[in-house]
User: What shape does this take?
Amino acid sequence: MDKQLLNQYMKVQEYFNKNPKFMAKTERGVTKVVSAIPVDLNSPVVSENAEAVVNSVWCADGKYWSERVWEHKAQLQADLEQGLLDTIVRGVGPDELTKTLMKDFNKEYNVANTLVRTELTHVYTRAAADRYSEAGCEFYEVLSAQSDDECYDMNGTVIRLTEMVEGDNAPPFHPNCRCTILPVIKGR
Assistant: This one.
């Protein structure tokens, strides 16, 4: 799983290398084009950043992802690694991997789906934040996926990137969180 999460971090970095221009709001709500600085995906710094994200304790329970998995950890990790690789290579959504976890570990859909989506949200959030910061954005805005979600109160909140704390002021706010962050430029 670590390897696949590292892979996902690098895919976000690769995306910004291929699509360096993105829209960011100013504090006044004006939309501007910002350019991400291309990074060398083979750079030790980028690899170290990716490893730091994947190995970070980011959840309020103070545990690493591997400590939150079910009792059949070794087999689950092998299945998740293979499943995430298959999901990425074939370009299918996380639902297929969720179904595999349900079948192989006799877990209900919500349990398996929550694990997959929450870990991916963590990686996507941190990878995007790294690129926003490198592009000169000082802030981010939280975008909530649904109005009835428990984290909807955070929707539209603008926070300094250096103050980002996943689970507190950045996604994932809760298991299966579908929020994201958008770049914000100060005073332009």
